[in-house]
Amino acid sequence: MLRISRKALMIITLFLASALAGTACMLFIKETLSRAESNSVVATINGEPLTTEEFKLLLAKNRASTYTYFKGKYNVDDSPRFWDDNYGGEVPIEKLRNESLNEGAIIKIQQLLAKQKGIVKDISYPAFVQQLQAENERRKEAVRKKQAIYGPVSFDEKAYYGIVNGNLAAELKKKIGQESAVSDQALQRYYELNKDVLFVKSDTIRIKKLSVALADHGSLQKGDARALIDDIHDRWAAGEDLDKLLEAYEPKNSRLIAKEEQILDDASIKDNARNSPILTDTAEQLSVGGISQVFEENGAFTMIVCLEKTPQGYRPFLEVKDQVKSDVIDQQYNELVAQLMKDAVIHINNSVYNSINL
């Protein structure tokens, strides 16, 4: 019969106690880590976690648009209670959370699709943080070496999150375009359905323009210039002949009134829109014979009358074929993401989701 000494028994007992304590400690750590992990996830989309860190980035991104929505619809201002109050059955923080969750789900769908197609390997949030750190280090090193960089010296998480996911969507569209064969018939069909909105040429517009320069540009003081052109506008709009009207002004004032005809056409529309955006937009809105209100642009008060508008038809299909194909691929991509969203399995961690505030 095996006999165990008291000393050996004590050693065995201490060993078993230590082992049990270690096991209990491991179980406690595992449970703690599991609980911590669940607290860091707002939702899963097809099993892919949307972390609280990502969700907070989306909340920050959508905060301004949510405030603008409530300001516009209910005319409410920001206040300590703004985000939690109820306005017509809508609560700002709830709307903000919901829209941010929806955007987060779309991002995860895109990320999973990109991973599936081999565009990216790791779509986890820690991988994103590592990528951000590496990019900022690269930029910092480039600045140190006096090399050119585009954009800021360093990105914050919110800005870089948008850039990374925007680039990922662009890569996905490119991949889908390579995988899908879009026939010329499909492109032509899209062109015909959308040409009245997307591919119509700008009308050729002939206008008469009157302007009075401001004092900084060698003319009247601002108030005097405005009073002069307002008087011309009201009398011209009332039906007086413009040439006789201008002759009636004192020579010192009539010399300050610039009068010219101008053509706005498809060839010059970009330059006109860049250099004189108010005039261009006003001319496009006027009907033939219509007289604009007075507006200020390029150092002068100006008014115009539309003399003639001539439609120029459509940009030819072959000229815009590449744009049509890009639009069709965008459409295919959006339909694919919408279907994947419809089929997605989304589990919300409600205790975390409802506890996140601004």
Automatic annotation (TrEMBL):
Keywords, ordered alphabetically: Isomerase
InterPro entries according to UniProt: PPIase_dom_sf, PrsA_foldase, Trigger_fact/SurA_dom_sf
Database matches in Gene3D superfamilies: 3.10.50.40, Porin chaperone SurA, peptide-binding domain
Molecular function as annotated in GO: isomerase activity
Protein name in the entry: Peptidyl-prolyl cis-trans isomerase
Organism, as annotated: Paenibacillus hodogayensis
Classification of source organism: Bacteria, Bacillati, Bacillota, Bacilli, Bacillales
